[in-house]
Specification:
The protein is an all-alpha fold. About 70% of the residues lie in helices and about 0% in strands.
């Protein structure tokens, strides 16, 4: 009788219904995100696996990078190009000097988790699991971040667009995109919630994942200044100190490079080995445009198509960046602009279509545009067609970004 009375009293509390509704809403949120992920993940598996029986493999692919490119299974079809470099670092460390352009956190995690995997090629399996787990966490952070400003409908649509984006194949693969996006979204979410310690830790790890982590650091600093009305005194506050500490991710990697190779900036100078050197941005764009017009006879070749699509991605995301600057938070715009401009200074638009994959503000803008049903249909169909194309090409050893 006493227990029943307590239960009745609890149910009559004014906050009980709110708590109950919140738990119910959280379950719906979790169910939606997991179902979206599983649908996307299983679909890519199916498309990639079926394609390997019908598509001619890229004979120019350096087979030495793989254990056996003819021995396909559900894991190694996601092990392509840069995956082999991360695997090599996870297994052997930075024995090859030019591998320093690949930052250490991802291969380090591959190495750690490989100890718990009792199968052949443990580092490869570890990388696959890390990427897929990271994108699930990234989806939750993305959803929560968008909900700070927009409706549930826009949040869900942004997640959908992110996963059907043509380059989302790299979220599914043994690449750093999933991990980097997760850390980037976490850093923005926590700084928006005034949890500067958690944000700083996320930025610290992002700086150890990719050089672009320094772009996140700059954007988070801008966000902090915005929250403090751009007062210079705020830069001397305790919270700012946490943000400064986050830059130690990059600094610690530079310290390691100085110890091993006596060059803390080796990750920059080694870019020349990969065909990247400083070139003014207007020269890069001019050369790309000229290439398209003087090589019309190569219109149906992969080289021509890749150059065309990478230039198109730059133009589209540059336009979206301007829109973000006018309609969204300046920290979001700064992050996008730097992330688009800096890679171009390396002298090429190559892989730019992959780099824009982690520019989350663009997907929020697209989700807002997608409120119009016709726009939603156009975006969804276009993204899905190109995602299928890139999945097939990637699985069959062709370069896609």
């Amino acid at each position: 009788m006493f227990t029943c009375k307590i239960i009745i009293e609890i149910h009559s509390l004014p906050h009980y219904k709110v708590i109950k509704d919140s738990i119910k809403y959280m379950k719906k949120e979790i169910k939606y995100i997991l179902s979206l992920f599983l649908t996307w993940r299983i679909s890519l598996f199916f498309i990639a696996w079926i394609s390997i029986f019908f598509i001619t493999k890229n004979s120019a692919y350096r087979s030495a990078w793989l254990f056996d490119i003819e021995n396909y299974n559900l894991i190694n079809i996601w092990y392509r190009w840069d995956s082999a470099h991360y695997d090599f670092i996870a297994t052997h460390g930075y024995e090859w000097v030019n591998s320093v352009v690949f930052f250490p956190l991802y291969p380090f995690l591959m190495r750690i988790f490989s100890y718990f995997i009792p199968f052949e090629y443990p580092t490869m399996i570890a990388g696959f699991l890390i990427s897929n787990f990271a994108i699930i966490i990234a989806l939750f952070y993305f959803y929560k971040l968008i909900k700070l400003d927009y409706s549930d409908q826009i949040s869900r649509r942004a997640l959908l667009y992110l996963l059907i984006f043509p380059m989302s194949i790299f979220f599914a693969s043994i690449y750093t995109e999933s991990l980097f996006l997760m850390l980037t979204l976490a850093s923005f979410y926590y700084v928006r919630k005034n949890n500067y310690k958690a944000s700083a830790m996320a930025v610290f790890l992002a700086c150890l994942t990719r050089f672009a982590g320094i772009f996140v650091f700059i954007a988070i600093l801008v966000e902090y200044l915005y929250q403090n009305n751009y007062r210079i005194k705020a830069l001397r506050a305790k919270n700012a100190f946490y943000i400064y500490l986050s830059s130690l991710g990059l600094i610690s990697y530079m310290f390691f490079l100085n110890l091993k190779y006596q060059n803390p900036f080796l990750f920059i100078s080694a870019q020349s080995h990969w065909g990247r050197n400083f070139v003014p941005i207007w020269n890069v764009l001019f050369d790309s445009i000229i290439y398209i017009f003087i090589n019309l006879n190569m219109f149906f070749t992969l080289a021509y198509f890749n150059n065309l699509i990478e230039l198109a991605y730059f133009i589209i995301f540059a336009i979206i960046s301007v829109y973000v600057w006018g309609k969204m938070r300046k920290s979001y715009a700064i992050y996008m602009i730097i992330s688009i401009v800096i890679p171009l200074l390396s002298g090429s638009v190559a892989s730019l279509n992959r780099y824009v994959l982690v520019l989350f503000p663009a997907f929020i803008i697209l989700a807002i545009i997608g409120q119009n049903k016709l726009h939603h249909v156009i975006i969804s169909i276009t993204f899905t067609i190109f995602l299928i194309y890139h999945t097939i090409m990637f699985a069959n050893l062709y370069w896609v970004g």
